[in-house]
């Protein structure tokens, strides 16, 4: 099968998987619903099921899909930006900044929009700090950016540990749950969905330039790509996508690391196909993981970040072993 036909087939399959994952998320729970009951709910024949699905499950499922798509898209962009297959959305300390903001809001006793607002402010402050400290002339290396991100992430980790130490015992559980990833408090999926669509709209027009950048900055410059400007666009887009995901769901690992790798194995490294495919795959994976997190040990809800790590570690080790000669 020609490569472009295979890539289109994979995109169609991922689209179907996205729809199926949302269907599973709507049907699964303490009150399990069959396809017939879901259809009856859509037609308005079952008010109880309609309330459960529309008011409770649908917003959470859409938030999970949006956050998974954001993390996978940000991971794919970061791996091109840094030319490092181990890069993920959190490598530049954005998650740590959001964690400091969210935990500060919890320590102050804020509720409602207070926690996500502080989390986004912390993530945004980290973006500005890292980018401001690491600004260079756009030469062939991204080492200053990476090192600055690592140092800022370490500082944020120290602040998180300090806040957890100072926090009252009754607040520590909620703080730790947020740090491990939690979608139960996502009030609305609309901001995350909006950022996902905006990030795709910004990144896809530069897909051809990203293909050249992936081969090396010198070659991209020789072919007319404005590499410094492209890098700024990619960094800001990936950073804001990560900030939106972390603000909505807390820190969820491995989605942005393994999903781009798996998609590359299926369709190659053409960014025109890889970016939307990664968003679909990441959204589907996190939706299914969140559904499992709230059902496998019901009525106890597990942190979804724990499940993604349990899935991600063996998958990444497999990919690592597969890449060895």
Give helix % range. over 70%
Q: How many beta-strand elements?
A: 0
Give the full name of the CATH homologous superfamily: ABC transporter involved in vitamin B12 uptake, BtuC
CATH architecture: Orthogonal Bundle
End-to-end C-alpha gap: 26 Å
Regions with pLDDT < 50 over 5+ consecutive residues? Answer: none
Number of helices: 14
Strand content: under 5%
Q: If you had to describe this structure to a student in words, what would you say it looks like?
A:
The chain is mostly helical and 325 residues long. The chain has a single domain, classed as Orthogonal Bundle (ABC transporter involved in vitamin B12 uptake, BtuC). The protein contains 14 helices and no strands. α8 packs antiparallel against α11 and α12 crosses α13. The longest helix is centred in the N-terminal third of the chain and has 36 residues. The radius of gyration is 20 Å and the shape is globular. The protein starts with a helix and ends with a helix.
